Amino acid sequence: MRLNEPGTIYNDRVNQLDFAISKSVRVGRTDLRPEVGIFNMLNANPVITQTNTYGPTLNNATAILPPRLVRFGLTLKF
User: Fold this and answer.
1) Residues 9/51, Cβ–Cβ less than 8 Å
2) What phi and psi values does residue 19 have, to the nearest 5 degrees?
3) pTM higher than 0.85 for the full model?
4) CB count in 10 Å sphere of residue 35
5) By CB distance 3.0 to 4.6 Å, which of 32, 53, 63, 78 could disulfide with 48?
6) What is the rounded average pLDDT of the residues 10-18?
7) Which of 30, 35, 45 is nearest to 72 (CA)?
């Protein structure tokens, strides 16, 4: 017996804002490209997955969107 019809209940919409900036710099014969990236800039936390089986954990969140993350990088070409 089904608790609800398939396709009638959905999780929240996932909106994630990512931002990255980089700049190429030439030093002699070497190209440097430093980069800074910010992921999930607005720090949203919608539910990604939840328990759908009947029992005491029905509709409990099992995963949410990862928190804000900053990444630093450097590309070196010589």
Assistant:
1) no
2) -140, 135
3) no
4) 13
5) 63
6) 90
7) 35
Q: What is the 3-state secondary structure (H, E, C) of the chain?
A: CCCCCCCCCCCCCCCCCCEEEECCEEECCEEEEEEEEEECCCCCCCEEEECCCCCCCCCCEEEECCCCEEEEEEEEEC
* pLDDT class of 46 with cuts at 50, 70, 90: very high
Query: With 60 as the cut, is the pLDDT of residue 1 above it?
Result: no
* Confidence band, pLDDT 50/70/90 cuts, at residue 74: very high
**53 by DSSP, 3-state: which?**
coil
Token reading at 20: 């990255």
Report CA 31 to chain centroid distance, whole Å.
30
